[in-house]
């Protein structure tokens, strides 16, 4: 968090985005990418966003793999439900989950994970009680969902965003 | 971009990826008709925004990489921004629906968290 690089993650993301858009990289585009990575975060400084601290790259990689696998599986599950290929009766319902996580960035990532996964929908989070209201398309067992969200997503996110 | 530059096996992979992706997106659209309540319907379009988009983008990246002769990763940015922005709309819709159901005292209104 030096004066030149107030938001190192943002700078790195901007440089990478610029290079991806202008692939294959030439000396000129690399120079422009570095310039964008330096100037834009300096402008962002005026907005005083809260700095993001992430830890444990290994946990990030494992969580990413878990989320990608769950997304694939739930895509197929939801497609089956829509096409009427699923046997047996299906119930939908709301589930209330008590969350231990309070870090705002961790909560936003959790909301993206739950909403982007078909079959689960983040409806409401109460910051006073720390409870999350979620809608699930296939309500097999409420406790099973609570454990799934807490073990698979919340615990790694709490390690990543302290 | 000319057709004959692309070997047949690559063309088949691209076609399969694009059609499977489109199939998932279509299933999501069907879900909007087939599912009954609002909260169920919100789940359906996510199919097109996640696996559907991922498969179509994978096909597009493979095609462009082969045609341009080097690895093209631009399309990952489309995937990234779809993933980050779609939940914002979904969250707003869900919150609005929950608020409406509660003020109308609908029997199927969501409980307080």
Automatic annotation (TrEMBL), chain A:
Keywords: Cell membrane, Membrane, Transmembrane, Transmembrane helix. It is found in: Cell membrane. InterPro entries: Cation_antiport_E (IPR002758). It is a multi-pass membrane protein. It comes from the Bacteria. Its main location: membrane. Pfam families: MNHE. The keyword Membrane applies. The chain crosses the membrane at residues 7-24, 30-47. Belongs to the CPA3 antiporters (TC 2.A.63) subunit E family. This is Na+/H+ antiporter subunit E. It comes from Methylorubrum zatmanii. The lineage of its organism: Bacteria, Pseudomonadati, Pseudomonadota, Alphaproteobacteria, Hyphomicrobiales.
From TrEMBL, chain B:
This is Monovalent cation/H(+) antiporter subunit G. Keywords: Membrane, Transmembrane, Transmembrane helix. It comes from the Bacteria. It comes from Methylorubrum zatmanii. The chain crosses the membrane at residues 6-33, 45-66, 78-98. It holds the Pfam family PhaG_MnhG_YufB. The keyword Transmembrane helix applies. InterPro entries: PhaG_MnhG_YufB.
């Amino acid at each position: 968090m030096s004066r030149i690089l107030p938001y190192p993650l943002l700078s790195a993301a901007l440089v990478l985005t610029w290079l991806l858009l202008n692939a294959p990289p030439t000396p000129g585009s690399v120079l422009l990418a570095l310039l964008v990575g330096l100037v834009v975060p300096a402008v962002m400084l005026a907005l005083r966003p809260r700095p993001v601290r992430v830890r444990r790259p290994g946990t990030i990689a494992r969580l990413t793999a878990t989320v990608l696998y769950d997304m694939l599986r739930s895509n197929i599950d939801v497609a089956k439900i829509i096409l009427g290929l699923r046997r047996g009766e299906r119930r939908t319902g709301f589930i209330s989950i008590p969350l231990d996580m309070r870090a705002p960035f961790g909560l936003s990532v959790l909301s993206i994970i739950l909403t982007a996964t078909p079959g689960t929908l983040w409806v409401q989070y109460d910051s006073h009680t720390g409870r999350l209201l979620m809608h699930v398309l296939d309500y097999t067992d409420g406790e099973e969902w609570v454990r799934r969200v807490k073990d698979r997503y919340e615990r790694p996110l709490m390690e990543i965003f302290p | 971009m000319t057709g004959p530059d692309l070997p047949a096996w690559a063309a088949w992979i691209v076609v399969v990826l694009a059609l499977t992706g489109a199939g998932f997106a279509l299933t999501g659209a069907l879900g909007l008709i087939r599912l009954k309540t609002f909260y169920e319907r919100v789940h359906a379009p996510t199919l097109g925004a996640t696996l559907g988009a991922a498969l179509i983008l994978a096909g597009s990246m493979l095609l462009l990489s082969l045609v341009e002769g080097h690895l093209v990763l631009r399309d990952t940015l489309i995937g990234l921004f779809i993933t980050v922005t779609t939940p914002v709309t979904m969250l707003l819709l869900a919150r609005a629906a929950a608020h409406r159901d509660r003020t109308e005292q609908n029997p199927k209104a969501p409980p307080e968290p």
